[in-house]
Amino acid sequence: MASPIPLGTWPTPLEPAPRLAASIGLDHLWIKRDDLIGLGGGGNKVRKLQYTCAEALAAGAATLITTGAPQSNHARLTAAAAARLGLRCVLVLAGKRPAAPRGNLILDELAGAEIVWAGAESLTQVVDAEVTKRYKPYVIPFGGSSPASALGYVECAREIEAQLPDFDRVVVAVGSGGTMAGLVAELGPERVVGVDTGAVRDARAVVASLLDDDVDPAELQIDPAQVGAGYGKLTERVREALKLAARTEGLFLDPTYTGRAMASLIAGHIPRHGRTVFLHSGGLPGLFGHPEL
Question: What is the pLDDT of residue 56?
């Protein structure tokens, strides 16, 4: 395995959130600020890209290709990482080009990424076609999640252990699964609570696939109750969670990932006692892609 390429400044801060904790009814709450990772607007994907980009460079790649939804945070940060490393970037995004770019799409283009819209075709079909015509392509998986890139969140778990040795649990949104998988690999399934965002069909199976066989998928704690109408669809619970975090701590969350994780925390699906760490995985630019807010 190639050694990870430094793309951020570590460790990220761990900040107490007493007013938010009191509003929710938690004993103690801290926010792990992975939204403050410096590259490209920040977010959890940077820790993974340190591994996937290292693999790409080791393979002699000149072009990074990846996929996502129109407001994909992973796509934005892949574009930013490619710019920093002097690589080309092709983003294959689901659906059709919108009438006007918003949110992450503006930043994708600023970073120089070429956006290919899949339209009615599957993302896999379009990626395969792009690979055949690009110079020295390297495909980064959906969400940047792989067994190797999950090591980025093993490292994050160790940061939290050093910053707050006696914490009880970490709460994290689950998209492509790599962030939760890395945390579970280091902390064990009993100390990590995931919140399904609807990004994949079976979040439990996806997270388990990124872990060693010694972790029983049935042991994974994943709240399925916040998906609502589907991935990327704003719910009223999420809207209220965004307001509460902003109005108690000046903390801005995104409507797809961290907003759902906070909605789960507010709803009481996660224990109120002890010391809870909420992983802020970034995604703020995506908020500006939701005019319905």
Answer: 97
Q: Is the dihedral of CA 71, 76, 78, 79 positive or negative?
A: positive
- Please report how many Cα atoms fall inside a 13 Å half-sphere around the Cα of residue 176, on the Cβ side: 22
Q: Which fold has domain 14-43+146-287?
A: Rossmann fold (3.40.50)
Query: DSSP letter string over 204-219?
Result: HHHHHHTS-TTS-GGG
14-43+146-287 against 45-144: fold identical? yes
CATH of 45-144, one of 3.40.50.1100, 3.50.50.60, 3.90.1150.10, 2.40.50.100: 3.40.50.1100
Residues 6+ away with beta carbon under 8 Å from 111: 40, 76, 79, 80, 82, 83, 89
Sequence ranges of the domains in the chain:
14-43+146-287, 45-144
101: exposed, middle or buried (Cβ count in 10 Å: 0-12, 13-18, 19+): middle
In this predicted structure, what is the pLDDT of residue 109?
A: 97
Q: What mean pLDDT is predicted for residues 247-268? A: 96
Query: Taking CA 194 as the corner, what is the angle to CA 189 and CA 200, rounded to the nearest 5 degrees?
Result: 115
| 199 vs 289 pLDDT, higher one | 199
Q: Which residues are catalytic?
A: 72
Cis (ω within 30 of 0) for the bond into 11?
A: yes
Model confidence pLDDT, tens digit, residues 137-192? 999 999 999 999 999 999 999 999 999 999 999 999 999 999 999 999 999 999 99
Please state the pTM of the whole predicted model. 0.95
Give the model confidence (pLDDT) of 23-77 as tens digits.
999 999 999 999 999 999 999 999 999 999 999 999 999 999 999 999 999 999 9
| Closest to 231 in 3D by CA, of 174, 273, 189 | 174
